[in-house]
Amino acid sequence: MTTATASDLTLPTLGGKYNFLLRRLHSLTGIVFGGYLVIHLLVNATLIQGVHPHDIYQLQVDKIHSLPFLWALEWGLIYLPILYHTVYGIYIVLTGQPNVGRYGYEKNWLYTLQRFSGLFIVFWLLFHVMALKYGMFGQNLAFRPGQATAAVAQHLNHWFLLWIWYPIGVIASCFHLANGFWTAAITWGLTISAGAQRRWGYVCAGLFVLTFICGMLAIIGGARAG
Question: Does the predicted TM-score (pTM) go above 0.85?
Fold first, then answer.
């Protein structure tokens, strides 16, 4: 078994008769935000192309910031989905009963790692957004759309962010994304048989490799730009 039941002592019936719908919404918002994360990492990976003869990353940022109703897209496809996914995800973590200590199966470890990576991503993403978008940790860490590449380079001009914080964040995010997509297919009844789950697992493993490479290329490219 790879899942755990909720404890009777920790609000197991949050949402009452709507608990099923709340969990499906949690899965759906994870898929929406996961799709955004893939695009985000692909765009950031263009940092590895450097600034000569053209700053490709800056061109991509300019395209994004020229979109009409960008604020609506951000709230509809990024902020609201991740807020709900985070809040309900924390509830799932608090009410779950991991049994990896007694049953050390591979899927049990993935279940546990999914929860731990999710909790880490909450703090990692909070810093990422507050620092880059709102400059809460100093303007030297803030993102400037008109000088995107230079802003990323300056942001990564801190050894802790460059060598520890962002690499760990990339690994956690890519794992959470790939494993979440794998379980989402089961949740929505798309992979019922063991063979289908195994084949989809190969696809999700490939997704992890692709996004991880893109994330690391973004970090390397950003550091080189500085």
Answer: yes
H-assigned helices in 70-193: 70-74, 80-95, 106-132, 148-155, 159-160, 166-187
Q: How far is CA 88 from CA 14, 23, 115, 224, in A?
A: 10, 8, 12, 38
The DSSP secondary-structure symbol of 120 reads: H
**Consecutive H or E run containing 129:** helix 106-132
SS3 67: coil
CB 23 within 8 A of CB 14: no
**Alpha-carbon dihedral 75, 76, 79, 84, rounded to 10 degrees:** 140
pLDDT tens for the chain, residues 1 to 226: 444 444 444 445 555 678 899 999 999 999 999 999 999 999 999 999 998 878 999 999 999 999 999 999 999 999 999 999 999 999 999 887 777 767 667 888 999 999 999 999 999 999 999 999 999 999 999 999 999 999 999 999 999 999 999 999 999 999 999 999 999 999 999 999 999 999 999 999 999 999 999 999 999 999 999 7
Half-sphere exposure at residue 221, Cβ-oriented, CA atoms within 13 angstroms: 24
Q: Which of 178, 171, 172 is nearest to 203 (CA)?
A: 178
Contact 6, 97 (CB under 8 A): yes
- Determine how many CB atoms are found less than 10 A away from the CB of residue 45: 23
